[in-house]
Amino acid sequence: MYSSGTLRIHELTAEERAVYAALKPECLPEHVAIIMDGNGRWAGHRSLKRFLGHQQGAKSVQLVTETASRIGLPWLTLYAFSLENNLRRPRAEVNFLMRLLRTYLESNLQRMMDNNIRIRYIGRTQELPPEVQDKMAWAAEATARNTGTTLTLALNYGGRSELVDAFRGLAAEMKRKHITLDRITEEDIHRHLYTAHMPDPDLLIRTSGEMRLSNYLLWQVAYTEIFVTERLWPDFRGIHLLEAIADFQRRERRYGGLGEGSGEGSGEVDEEAERFKIAAG
Ligand code: FPP
């Protein structure tokens, strides 16, 4: 299933290798998305400032991405900074996150290169401070020719605003090409999403226990398997990514169908329905 990069299983830790050994290589996800939550709580539990939680969270970003690259995961998409974070968090925290992002890109570029990682972004990144945009462009350009995992950072991202941007793009295209409304397909909307170049996530991980999507990849997660862990993001490591993948492999994905063992196609279901009709009178 994997098309990008080469496997570097020998670079996994012994613990990671043990979890990886139990995975079915033919059923690995192609795209994993993560809602990285719990930085503030991690710091709070240690009576530290929230900033230190974010700083520790940035280390998790690098370590998890490296494990993803070792197992040849083609796409990893991390929710690093939402539109709502930008609007609703104190200015000092937003400024810190912006500085942290710049430092992160600068100090991890060599590790990205060593791990054949390509870095990209989704979101209204044009609204971020110019010096942050410059650093982002620099890292994207430097890693553009890498062929391993594509790490996509969602920055100033919101799922609803992505849909607004997609509909605006599609409406402009329709006007230009004189296309009528009844010709719009799901594929047309998909083409105008920030994620048009990648498959939808197979697995969405959320750390720190909250059971919500928080406006993340709303269109794309229609059939995504969701894995929520109580672990706080600064404590999340590559081994936990592998454990989430192991859990994912135990799921049965149905995409609205009946799945295996349902009796589908054997005539059993029709007979069952017939009996139910009679009993129901
Ligand atoms: C949620 O923690 C996390 C964020 C708001 C942003 C995620 C940022 C990072 C992981 C660090 C920087 C990332 C990069 C790529 C350099 P929270 O503050 O909402 O935690 P809480 O819910 O416990 O308060």
Task: Give structural notes.
There is one protein chain. With 281 residues, the chain is α/β, with parallel strands linked by helices. The protein is built from ten helices and six strands, in the order H-E-H-H-E-H-H-E-H-E-H-H-E-E-H-H. It has helices at residues 14-21, 39-45, 50-70, 83-88, 91-114, 130-143, 159-177, 186-191, 238-249, 268-280; strands at residues 31-35, 75-82, 118-122, 150-157, 203-206, 225-228. Helix 2 (39-45) packs across helix 3 (50-70) and helix 3 (50-70) packs parallel to helix 5 (91-114). The N and C termini lie far apart (49 Å). Farnesyl diphosphate is lined by residues 36-41, 50, 54, 57-58, 61, 80-81, 85, 100-101, 104, 153, 208, 233.
Give the SSE map.
Blueprint lengths: L13 H8 L9 E5 L3 H7 L4 H21 L4 E8 H6 L2 H24 L3 E5 L7 H14 L6 E8 L1 H19 L8 H6 L11 E4 L18 E4 L9 H12 L18 H13 L1
Parallel strand pairs: 1-2, 1-5, 2-4, 3-4, 5-6
Q: Tell me the structural class.
A: alpha/beta
Poorly predicted segments:
none
Oligomer: single chain
Helical content stands at 40-55%
Distance, first to last CA? 49 Å
What's the short story on this structure?
The protein has helices spanning about 15-20, 40-45, 50-70, 85-90, 90-115, 130-145, 160-175, 185-190, 240-250, 270-280; strands at about 30-35, 75-80, 120, 150-155, 205, 225-230. With about 280 residues, it is α/β, with parallel strands linked by helices. A 6-stranded parallel sheet has the order 3-4-2-1-5-6, sandwiched between helices.
